[in-house]
UniProtKB/TrEMBL annotation:
Presence of the UniProt keyword Transport in the record: yes
Keyword terms of this UniProt record: Heme, Iron, Metal-binding, Transport
The organism of origin for this protein: Aliidiomarina soli
InterPro entries named in the record: GlbO/GLB3-like, Globin-like_sf, Globin/Proto, Hemoglobin_trunc
Name of the protein in question: Hemoglobin-like oxygen-binding protein
Segments of this protein annotated with the region Disordered: 1-22
Superkingdom per UniProt: Bacteria
């Protein structure tokens, strides 16, 4: 009798309130992932960063979308396909120094500035991505 008050509706968004949802779900997060790599491919300021990536970037774009989806509070696609991200371990074969970190953040900050209107969300994302990028330094 009271269970109807304590169960989630089948139509309720399981990601409501998450950054994933605030960014527009799959379309918004996929646009972020793709724009990130568009900038990397077109901006000479990040040529060295682009050189670290296998070409063409199609599969990398997809994996980045999968990662961002879960990292931002949405579906855990990356974990389902590849297991725990172990980002630092996966990136150990690549020399990631402060210059690479800065180039990566240059691309990501541009994406955030272009695609995120909410000031608080923009600040949160910048802080989270900055922390993540610092963590990746291995040289």
């Amino acid at each position: 009798m009271f269970s109807r008050f304590f169960t989630k509706s089948k139509t309720e968004d399981p990601y409501a309130g998450s950054q994933y949802s605030q960014l527009g779900g799959d379309p918004g997060v996929e646009a972020m992932a793709n724009r990130f790599y568009d900038i990397m491919e077109s901006d000479p300021a990040v040529h060295a960063l682009l050189a670290l990536h296998p070409q063409p970037l199609d599969s990398v774009r997809g994996r980045f979308f999968d990662f961002l989806s879960g990292w931002l509070g949405g579906p855990q696609r990356f974990v389902e396909k590849y297991g725990h991200p172990r980002l630092r371990a996966r990136h150990l074969p690549f020399k990631i120094d402060e210059s690479m970190r800065d180039q990566w953040l240059y691309c990501m900050y541009q994406v955030i500035d272009e695609q995120v209107d909410d000031t608080l969300l923009k600040q949160q994302l910048r802080a989270q991505f900055t922390q993540l990028a610092h963590h990746m330094i291995n040289s």
